[in-house]
From TrEMBL:
Superkingdom field: Bacteria
PANTHER family to which the protein is assigned, alphabetical: EAMA DOMAIN-CONTAINING PROTEIN (PTHR32322:SF2), INNER MEMBRANE TRANSPORTER (PTHR32322)
GO CC, alphabetical: membrane
The species this protein was found in: Variovorax beijingensis
InterPro entries listed in its UniProt record: AA-Vitamin_Transporters, EamA_dom, EmrE-like
Subcellular compartments: Membrane
Protein name as it appears in the record: DMT family transporter
Length: 283
């Protein structure tokens, strides 16, 4: 399979994450994150049984992997629970833009150009439209009561994934199979937090089915094939392809939730994707 097909497969899987997370939003977030990440790590278990080096990474790299996988998904599931999911999903997809804006801060030898700043303002405008547009739509009452705080985890998850993606360029190259270790450690940590901080929850058969789909798909296979794509293909082309994710994710989420495509959602999606493409093309 070519790097482009690997990337497109990962994008297709990630497009289902918000919909699956919304369907499972009744579960405690630590429990949901932990079970899904452990299930997602399963494909790499046979590899480490054959070769222990498949999971051999420095502690710094392991800490970075846990930061990225655990932090991103936990905050995203919190956002989908406390903010209208379509708008929270759009705000979360500021991460490609954050990668562009944060690159000069986190990576040596990278500079920020005026076009990057213009893209940042455009992306911020898109996030503002997504958030403020909820006042007159579904979830308006909840937003008024909670003071828009539910969008903060969406911004936080975008920042974590962008910074994780950039910091992977500053650590020693690790095998793709090590992502299974990141998921397993993150999942165990999350379940420990669930045991200490959350009330026990009973899972139905449907819950387990959705968890398996979530774990093996957007929280499992997607990370493995995405890593393969980045290591074998042109990262610039693959980065541009990633902007298909918010389009597919938002369309699927609208279908699942039964919400109509409003002008604010369409405008927010257009602004955020345009900002990300603009930022990626600025050299």
């Amino acid at each position: 399979m070519s790097p482009t097909l690997h990337a497109l497969f990962a994008i297709a899987l990630w497009a289902t994450l918000a919909s699956l997370g919304t369907a499972l939003s009744h579960l405690p977030p630590f429990l949901l994150t932990g079970l899904a990440l452990i299930i997602g790590s399963l494909p790499s278990w046979p590899l480490v049984l054959r070769d222990r080096a498949a999971w051999r990474v420095p502690p710094r790299t392991l800490a970075l992997g846990v930061y990225g996988l655990f932090g991103f998904h936990f905050l995203l599931f919190i956002a989908l629970r406390h903010a209208p999911p379509v708008e929270a999903n759009l705000v979360n997809y500021l991460w490609p833009l954050f990668m562009v804006v944060l690159a000069p801060v986190l990576l040596p030898g990278v500079s920020l150009r005026p076009l990057h700043l213009a893209a940042a303002l455009l992306g911020f405008a898109g996030a503002a439209v997504a958030i403020l547009g909820t006042r007159g739509g579904a979830g308006a009452g909840a937003i008024a009561i909670q003071g828009y705080w539910g969008f903060l985890p969406a911004l936080g998850s975008a920042f974590i994934w962008a910074s994780y993606s950039l910091w992977t360029k500053r650590v020693e190259t690790f095998p793709t199979s090590a992502i299974g270790l990141f998921g397993l450690v993150s999942g165990v940590l999350s379940l420990a937090c669930h045991a200490l901080l959350e009330a026990p929850a009973a899972l139905s058969g449907k819950d387990w089915l959705l968890l398996v789909l979530c774990g093996l798909g957007p929280l499992g296979a997607a990370f493995f094939v995405w890593d393969m794509a980045l290591k074998r293909g042109d990262p610039r082309r693959i980065g541009i392809l990633s902007y298909l994710t918010p389009l597919g994710s938002t369309a699927l989420l609208l279908l699942v939730t039964g919400r109509p495509l409003t002008w604010t959602i369409a405008l927010a999606a257009l602004l955020i994707i345009s900002a990300a493409v603009m930022g990626a093309r600025a050299r």
